[in-house]
Design brief:
With 355 residues, the chain is α/β, with parallel strands linked by helices. It has two domains: 195 residues, Peroxisomal Thiolase, Chain A, domain 1; 147 residues, Thiolase/Chalcone synthase (Peroxisomal Thiolase, Chain A, domain 1), CATH 3.40.47. The protein contains nine helices and 16 strands. Helix 6 packs parallel to helix 7.
Length: 355
């Protein structure tokens, strides 16, 4: 059976523009989360600098940048019909609504042209699991023999559409968010771009498997029994050498509780848990790819990253979460994500490939 490996990685965030640098910033407790003017009220977010940018689409610029860097690291032939491109985003350039075509296939096509990709680009827009779903789609296309290499890029910028939407749901925290903490008040938003190159070539990391499940509970509320995440976890061939689970960890009341319940039902409540949104904010279409990359970097360094903002457990299942860095034991981790519409996903990555 074809194995799928990660052979290229790139990130662009407000706290660093290389995977190792961002991982080190997380280790030190650094973050760009701060208060920004809002619509109609201020909101906490981690936003990218736009100083000096003069193009027509900052979204396309950042997505193209990380996709190109990942492809160069992987040393792949972008012009080959055996190379694919998948763009993960929730809203792409929706701020241009009324003045331009805001379909995400527009930036996807531009990214493909910039890289010299000749195959038809694919867009995955599946709420907050988009990045994870895009990586799973890339894995499946390689295993099916459609491509030898797939560039999976995720990007998201924040604007009035997203901010006011979350404000209307009363889901935003008025200060830095606290994933899984008893005093959590909601999520923080984030901006980022991230890309991986998946390949049938050998690499240091293998994308072993992934699963997507829907809990069919509510358009914006997760199942109280963690049905979707639990079933996604149970679909994975979980090994004995799991080092940690990198959770969605939005710091909202119901998401954190749902994930805790799902992990408990799956018998993983004692496994170390890592959450990154207290540092990076919720980067939405970039989150699955970005957080997977930073988790790979952490395990490469033999550590479990601290969960910034966490002090005292505020969920019904007492998970093994730490506010401090600690040593990792094992060669694999699980990435969890959840999103509006009841969608949930889980993905297993292993250092050195599966045994």
């Amino acid at each position: 059976m074809t194995k799928v490996h990660v052979i290229g990685r790139s990130v662009l965030t407000p706290i660093g523009n290389c995977p190792a640098g961002v991982m080190e910033a997380v280790r030190k407790g650094e973050s760009a989360l701060s208060l920004h003017p809002g619509f109609p009220e201020p909101y906490f977010a981690s936003l990218l600098e736009r100083d000096g940018f003069e193009g027509s689409s900052f979204f396309t610029y950042i997505a193209t940048k990380v996709a190109r860097e990942a492809a160069l690291e992987a040393k792949i032939d972008c012009s080959s019909l055996r190379t694919g491109l998948i763009l993960s985003t929730i809203k792409a350039d929706i701020q241009k609504l009324g003045n331009a075509d805001v379909s995400p296939i527009v930036p996807a096509a531009e990214i493909a042209r910039s890289l010299g990709i000749t195959s038809k680009p694919i867009v995955v827009s599946n709420a907050c699991i988009s990045g994870l779903a895009a990586m799973i789609q890339g894995m499946r296309l390689i295993k099916a023999g459609t491509f030898d290499n797939v560039i999976v890029v995720g990007a998201e910028l924040q604007d009035r559409f997203i901010v006011t939407g979350f404000q209307s749901l009363k889901a935003l925290s008025p200060k830095a968010c606290k994933p899984f903490d008893k005093d959590r008040e909601g999520l923080n938003l984030g901006e980022a771009a991230a890309a991986v190159v998946l390949s049938n070539r050998e690499g240091e990391w293998e994308l072993v498997d992934g699963a997507i499940r829907n809990d069919a509970n509510h358009i914006s509320g997760p199942s109280r029994t963690g049905e979707g995440s639990y079933n996604a976890l149970k679909a994975l061939p979980l090994p004995e050498d799991l080092a940690f689970v990198n959770v969605h960890g939005t710091a909202t009341l119901y998401n954190d509780e749902m994930e805790a319940v799902a992990l408990g039902r799956a018998g993983l409540e004692n496994l170390p848990v890592s959450a990154l949104k207290g540092t990076l904010g919720h980067t939405m279409g970039a989150a699955g790819i970005l957080e997977s990359i930073i988790s790979m970097e952490a395990l490469d360094a033999g550590i479990i990253l601290p969960t910034r903002g966490f002090k005292n457990c505020g969920v019904s299942v007492p998970l093994n979460i730490s506010a401090l860095e600690r040593a990792a034991k094992g060669n694999s981790f699980v990435k969890l994500l959840s999103g509006f519409g009841g969608i949930n996903g889980a993905m297993l990555l292993r250092k050195g490939g599966s045994k």
